[in-house]
Design a protein that fits this description.
Layout (H helix, E strand, L loop, with lengths): L2 H18 L10 H9 L3 H8 L2 E2 L10 E3 L4 E3 L3 H4 L7 E6 L10 E5 L22 H7 L2 H17 L4 E2 L23 H16 L4 E7 L12 E3 L2 H8 L1 H10 L3 E4 L3 E2 L2 E2 L4 H11 L5 E3 L8 H7 L9 H12 L5 H16 L2 H4 L9 H15 L1 E5 L12 E5 L24 H7 L3 E2 L1 H17 L5 H4 L2 H4 L7 H8 L4 E7 L15 H16 L3 E7 L15 E4 L7 H10 L12 E2 L24 E3 L8 H7 L3 E3 L10 E8 L7 E10 L8 E7 L11 E7 L8 E9 L5 E3 L4 E4 L2 E8 L5 E9 L3 E5 L14 H9 L1
Helix pairs in contact: 3-13, 5-15, 6-7, 6-15, 7-9, 15-22, 16-22, 20-21
């Protein structure tokens, strides 16, 4: 028996033994055994493990691919397919090597929901939870960790190994079609929410892939634009959320983005992948590319990308040619294989896990409803319009959006429930009557739109209703409904999607006329009007927000959105959501609006530079520092009760390593509710310029009864008070007085206190990398001038 065959047999036995005793937490293979496994691989096998397969190249479910010559395979996935209730969303796979006991790996997520075909009334099997922006609106990390745990369980039991979520790019501009997949305009809120989500998913023994790394803030020309960003803006804004998620949740994978930034494709940038993420942040997972991105496979490998997705014969040929002409060495493959194999061996398939095809569907649906309700933000509530009082029995539901709920945006991050509970259905289930004429008229209108567009591809099908013109009702028709109802509700629905920068579309004239006419008619009779915004993110409200009596922003909250809305309207749930994005008065107030072209911009194969001239001044950092008015500020959200903040205490008046901040929140109102305490820090301006204030902590109370109190605590460590100093390539805290500002929003500051840092503190030195190759029109001088006035 030759040595190579002996090694192979030993490894097969080892793999079988390890698989039989694998635990849910995954295996940790000794490095020497991993090296033995790599040594047993042929060149073709090594390339196969680095170049994945997917995007239509994956064989149909239940059809294995096996090459007898190379021993490379994709496993038969019939286990899940045998049940009509399971439709795994397989977006890609990584080959397996049967002769060495290496299993294939399935990537995807539960983006497809299916019902029992014999019982159309049965709840969907896979649960459509709220979108990431809606999750961030809860400001509740323990809740989002529970959501992640439920999603992870569904991924595990559906025979999928890694969830290609969550997205956590910064919402730089509301036009971006994928904003619904991203948490916030703020990196701390984004990072903390992503970390909670990932911890929940991975607690079930499956992986998560945070994405799209990095600076993927637009969809127009997303495969060719070059984001030109200062080192400081990168470190403080666009990389910070990813850094928090990596350090606090240890994701199994990071997916690079399509775009370039500062001259390089993200997947071809060794400074980004190796220097920053691996060396500085300590990331030990797999870098996978986004599906079929531009660039060169060899360049990606050399830069630190480990897994080329979705994979192609061209990429495999590139590796073979590069090995032949010595552009790369076999050891280059081996370095990536260490990460890939460690990743594969801790997946469910790698551990030999057999999915049960069972999970607690009812519990997950209930959690979806709970998280959807907690995400809802009460923007306006004049004279206690909400919750509905006991005199309200019949509701007039206007607009097509009341009869078709937008569960999420479209594309790769879309949740696809077979049915999303509409506002109409939710209100009826809550015990209210709905005006029959409106119910029949709008239901027929929605059905007609869908029937007339039944041949449209699935990608666009779910966008048809929100993008279709509103039904134009005459004012006379509207007026006739007043006597038939006790209150009016109008739902405005919007969708955004991958590959399109139309995430923000303001009201058209028909919608505006509908709001005006309904408000005039109902107010003339002394009755109230409520507007529901079923949209992914920021929506322009300044042109009409004075008309209705109440406004609810309900985001895109999955399959239970309509029931969650009804819970808040009825008062079963007291709203506690807060805005994770600022609502400017008008779109042109957004600092990136001048450079952001959206879907109207050019579509070109040329690499177009996009200048991030606003630097660190994104979202509330810009509005607060420049004193630009907002319609609704970052962190804003009303409640049916009231809260008092008191007893702000700092553990020390002088900073030394860290400061503990505590504050007491009291429910001073008449109904139970939750409140979010937000800690903003205003830093001294000495060595470098600073925003007026920055979010440095947040915490949400439990459900407080009237009169009940809860103490919340925050820890400010050295990194919390530091800013990135480009010239020093370091995180530095300037000496001086720091103001701790505790509030219910970025503008509703209730308590203040100060501490002092006696001397400049260099918190962390980092590598001088990722600098832009183009000049940016910095706004720092303008900020400085305004500060001195």
């Amino acid at each position: 028996m030759n040595v190579r065959l002996s090694v192979v047999l030993l490894l097969v036995v080892l793999q079988a033994l390890l698989g039989s005793c694998a635990r849910h937490t995954g295996l940790q293979h000794p490095t020497d055994k991993l090296h033995d496994l790599i040594a047993a691989l042929t060149i073709d096998e090594k390339i196969a493990l680095i170049v994945g397969v997917g995007d239509g190249k994956t064989p149909p479910p239940g059809v294995p691919v096996y090459d007898p010559k190379s021993g490379i395979s994709i496993e038969d996935n019939t286990t899940a397919i045998k049940s009509p209730l399971f439709v795994p969303a397989v977006d890609g796979q990584v080959w397996g090597i049967p002769r060495l006991g290496i299993k294939s790996t399935v990537m995807g997520g539960i983006t497809i929901a299916s019902t029992n075909p014999k019982d159309s009334t049965q709840e969907v099997r896979y649960t459509a939870f709220p979108s990431e922006t809606a999750m961030a609106a809860t400001w509740n990390t323990p809740l989002i960790e529970k959501v992640g745990k439920a999603i992870g369980k569904e991924v595990l039991e559906s025979n999928v190994d890694i969830m290609l979520e969550p997205g956590l790019n910064i919402q730089r501009n509301p036009m971006c079609g994928r904003n619904f997949e991203y948490f916030s305009e703020d990196p701390l809120l984004s990072g903390k929410m992503a970390a909670a989500y990932v911890r929940g998913v991975q607690s079930q023994g499956v992986g998560a892939a945070i994405k799209h790394f990095a600076a993927n803030n637009q969809e127009t020309d997303r495969r060719s634009y070059d984001a030109i960003i200062s080192q400081r803006a990168l470190r403080e804004i666009y990389l910070r959320g990813f850094e928090i998620a990596v350090k606090e949740s240890h994701p199994w994978s990071i997916m690079t983005s399509y775009n370039k930034f500062n001259g390089y494709y993200t997947s071809e940038n060794p400074e980004l992948l190796n220097t920053v993420v691996r060396d500085e942040w300590g990331f030990d997972g797999v870098f996978m590319t986004d599906w079929d991105g531009l660039g060169n496979a060899v360049a990606k490998l050399r830069a630190g990308s480990n897994l080329m997705m979705s994979g192609s014969d061209t990429e495999r040929a590139e590796f073979r040619a590069a090995l032949k002409d010595k552009t790369i060495d076999e050891s280059d493959l081996d370095r990536s294989l260490e990460y890939v194999l460690k990743f594969k061996m801790k997946t469910p398939r790698g551990r030999g896990y057999k999915p049960s095809l069972k999970f607690d569907t009812n519990a997950h649906v209930s959690l979806s409803r709970t998280s959807a309700a907690e995400a809802i933000v009460l923007l306006k509530n004049n004279a206690g319009t909400l919750p509905f009082n006991s005199s309200i029995k019949t509701v007039a539901l206007f607009s097509k959006g009341s009869y078709f709920f937008v569960a999420s945006g479209s594309g790769s991050g879309e949740s696809k429930p077979v049915h999303s509970v509409t506002v109409n259905e939710g209100i009826k289930k809550a015990g209210y009557q709905v005006v029959k004429f409106l119910d029949e008229t709008y239901s027929h209108f929605v059905d007609t739109i869908l029937v007339n567009n039944r041949k449209v591809t699935d990608y666009f099908y779910r966008r048809i209703i929100p993008f279709h013109p509103e039904l134009d009702l005459s004012k006379a028709t509207i007026s006739r409904q007043v006597a038939e109802s006790d209150i009016a509700v109008i739902t405005i629905g919007r969708s955004g999607g991958e590959g399109h920068d139309n995430g923000f579309i303001p009201l058209d004239q028909t919608e505006l006329s509908l709001i005006q006419d309904v408000c005039e008619s109902y107010h003339a009779a002394g009755k109230k009007v409520v507007i529901i915004l079923n949209v992914g993110g920021f929506f322009e409200t300044s042109g009409w927000s004075d008309l209705p009596d109440a406004i609810l922003h309900v985001w895109q909250t999955g399959q239970q959105g309509g029931n969650a809305v009804a819970d808040v309207l009825k008062g079963v749930v007291t709203p506690s959501g807060k805005l994770p994005v600022s609502f400017p008065v008008k779109y042109s107030d957004i600092p990136s609006s001048g450079e952001y072209k959206g879907d109207e911009g050019p579509k070109t194969a040329e690499v177009l530079p996009v200048l991030y001239n606003e630097g660190i001044y994104v979202g509330y950092r810009y509005f607060d520092s420049f004193k630009i008015p907002t319609a609704y500020e970052f962190g804003y959200g009303l409640s049916y009760t009231s809260f008092e903040f008191k007893n702000l205490n700092l553990s020390s008046a002088v900073f030394n390593n860290q400061i503990l901040v505590t504050v007491t929140v009291k429910n001073s109102g008449t109904v139970p509710g939750k409140e979010v305490a937000q800690l903003y820090l205003s830093a001294p301006v000495s060595g470098i310029e600073k925003p007026f204030q920055e979010l440095r902590g947040f915490a949400k109370t439990k459900l407080l009864k009237p009169g009940e109190t809860q103490q919340l605590s925050f820890v400010l460590d050295a990194r919390s008070i530091a800013s990135f100093w480009t010239g020093k390539s370091a995180w530095v805290a300037d000496p001086g007085v720091y103001e701790v500002r505790i509030g219910a929003s970025s503008k509703d500051i209730r308590l203040k206190s100060t501490f002092r840092l006696p001397n400049e503190l260099v918190v962390e030195k980092v590598h001088n990398v990722l600098y832009p190759f183009s000049l940016l029109n910095s706004r720092l001088d303008e900020i400085s001038v305004n500060r001195k006035k």
